[in-house]
Write a structure and sequence with these properties.
The complex is a heterodimer.
Chain A (H helix, E strand, L loop, with lengths): L3 E4 L2 E5 L4 E7 L6 E7 L6 E7 L4 E4 L2 E6 L4 E6 L8 E8 L8 E2 L3 E6 L1
Parallel strand pairs in A: 2-11
Antiparallel strand pairs in A: 1-3, 3-8, 4-5, 4-9, 6-7, 7-8, 9-10, 9-11
Chain B lengths: L3 E4 L2 E4 L5 E7 L5 E7 L6 E7 L2 E4 L7 E4 L5 E6 L8 E8 L8 E3 L3 E5 L1
Parallel strand pairs in B: 2-11
Antiparallel strand pairs in B: 1-3, 3-8, 4-5, 4-9, 5-6, 7-8, 9-10, 9-11
The chains are: A mainly beta, B mainly beta.
Chain lengths: ~110, ~110
């Protein structure tokens, strides 16, 4: 069964600190993995997208890594800001031509001053 | 510039009163999706259109219908909303092509059922 798991479920950090969110998946075959940021009451916004051959992808203070062998990905946030408070969702697409996206449950990040 | 637009952003309806949510896109993407997202949960796919081909998820209630009159527009009709249908409804688009595709989400419509 295609599944995406994320940990932790929620996380609280202080402004300026770094944090790492985890994503494990059992989706097969694998096409790409993306991280979304979803602010409360808004639609998800894409942060990074990685294909099988990519190990890391950065978008400003966000850096995603992918280990396709162990089927794990992480999202590292550097020097967190209050505006980083949001849910971060890991989504895996199983095939190039597919219309299927497997969503993780998300990690709720709260950045406190 | 807005690429996936959803209207209205907030919708209040009465129990059992039909409601229609709309989505439009300026990306000319061939696939449009409707998701339901309840509080603290991941989005759940209701159905999607690949061009004019409608694809319903097996567990989507019959109460939910969709229309796609052209490439740019897609509608979600809830025939008889129940209290359990209160949620955020997200529209998304993607362009199917070799090498994978990116999915773009609209801002969502939050539905309240009284």
């Amino acid at each position: 069964k295609n599944q995406v798991e994320q940990s932790p479920q929620s996380l609280i950090i202080l402004e300026g600190k770094n944090c790492t969110l985890q994503c494990n998946y059992t989706v097969s075959p694998f096409s790409n993995l993306r991280w979304y940021k979803q602010d409360t009451g808004r639609g998800p916004v894409s942060l990074t997208i990685m294909t099988f051959s990519e190990n890391t992808k950065s978008n400003g203070r966000y850096t995603a890594t992918l280990d396709a062998d162990t089927k794990q990905s992480s999202l590292h946030i550097t020097a967190s800001q209050l505006s980083d408070s949001a849910s971060y969702i890991c989504v895996v697409s199983p095939d190039n031509y597919g219309q299927n996206f497997v969503f993780g449950p998300g990690t709720r990040l709260s950045v406190l001053p | 510039d807005a690429m996936v637009i959803q209207n209205p952003r907030y919708q209040v309806t009465q129990f059992g009163k039909p409601v229609t949510l709309s989505c439009s896109q300026t990306l000319n993407h061939n696939v449009m999706y409707w998701y339901q997202q309840k509080s603290s949960q991941a989005p759940k796919l209701l159905f999607h259109y690949y061009d004019k081909d409608f694809n319903n998820e097996a567990d989507t209630p019959d109460n939910f219908q969709s229309r796609r009159p052209n490439t740019s527009f897609c509608f979600l009709d809830i025939r008889s909303p129940g209290l359990g249908d209160a949620a955020m409804y997200l529209c998304a688009t993607s362009l199917i092509r070799p090498g994978g595709e990116t999915q773009y989400f609209g801002p969502g419509t939050r539905l309240l059922v009284l």
